[in-house]
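Field reference: sequence -> structure
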Amino acid sequence: MRILGIETSCDETAAAVVEGQPGSTKPLKIISCVVASSAELQAKFGGIVPEQAARQQIKVMIPTLWECLRQMTEVGGPKTEDGDINKMRRYGDGIDAIAVTIGPGLVGSLLVGVETAKTLAYAWEKPIIPVNHLVAHLYANFIKKNQELRITNQEELPLFPAIGLVISGGHTDMVLMKDHRELRLIGRTRDDAAGECFDKCARMLGLPYPGGPEIAKLADKWIFEKSKVKSQKSKFDLFPRPLSDQDNFDWSFSGLKTAVLYYLQKNKGVKLNRLRKFGRGKQDQTDLARISAEIQEAICQSLIIKLSKAIKKYKPKSLLVAGGVAANKRLTQMLVQLNRGEEWKLFVPPPKLCTDNGAYIAAYAFYRYSPKDQWNLFDKMGQGMGYARTMGINREDMPGMMSQLQQINYLTGVNSFGDKFLNRFNKTGVKLGQAINGPGGMVVFPGIKSALT
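Structure field:
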């Protein structure tokens, strides 16, 4: 079975095709995976500007799809005649289902992916599977890693019960997974996410966006230099580990950000205006590296402290870590140390699968879907379509959205799609996304073909 995954929850535009056999004990295989990032554009603003991100995604959604499907044809997908390369509908023969992120995320960005997926699902007559972007991050650990292994046991599937930790720029959540269908939230940040803490602290230091990788680079240099001299090893106790003494699994990173700010303001030897001139003097570089290492250690240790408590209580067979912050090398080192001598197995994706991509969206759909579900794409958008409608936002009001749909409609051979189709479809009395048995047990939209007749 092959599933196309589409991800547009934030500033990335991603599409991927994964392949697997239902019931198999082997990880899924990535057939193609393409990510178009607007990080360089967002860096000019010092962070993500939602409207800019959505406009950029409208521009690159179709090229991203094209490249993803082209790669698929190179590894056993359907071939096309040279003269028919502009007919995207031919590629649908190699896809069994379409998975798309419906939330959480930015409203405009989610619209780009959802409308694209719905159009393709109609044109190709394929089932469409709405995906929770946050939980889907964990399913990067169910994908075959080949030579990119960071943890040696990842050539096998995780065992349940498992603890999952999602750490990114917008989320820091810990869940208990009894199986693919039963998840329970056991811990989360009460304010800022770990990734946001990295980025905001980096901004205080005058480092470019995204700040997490910049802090990690400087911290690695500091740790390496200090490791050469045993007597100069840092204790890394400059900043607090909030909530670490509480008997729960929650985090708080806003206090850590405040502690960094106060330190920079009050310490006479470290001035913000000096730090922003990084590279002009050796002392500036030393200050930046030292403070970066302290920040990184405080964030990573905060995560490990609560993870350790959760593992002792729930005794999982696997620990799944995912999200952009999971790419941090120092955090991985701490996780490996935590796992040493333990019976549970540790799973951490390679860096390129930690950040947003379509592969884990498709993997989520492969393992998580059940035909018992009754999905309603509008009601379950989270901060997506459902939220947009409650705010009085229509699809036509999103900049360039209909232009994008017209391009996809042309490429797929669909002549009419949008409100006219949806209005007639809704008159059939069938909920959009109501589940019935379809190919591979996936969800099918009943009545979708007859809605225009």
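Note: Strands lie at 2-7, 12-19, 29-37, 97-103, 128-132, 162-167, 172-177, 183-188, 318-322, 345-347.
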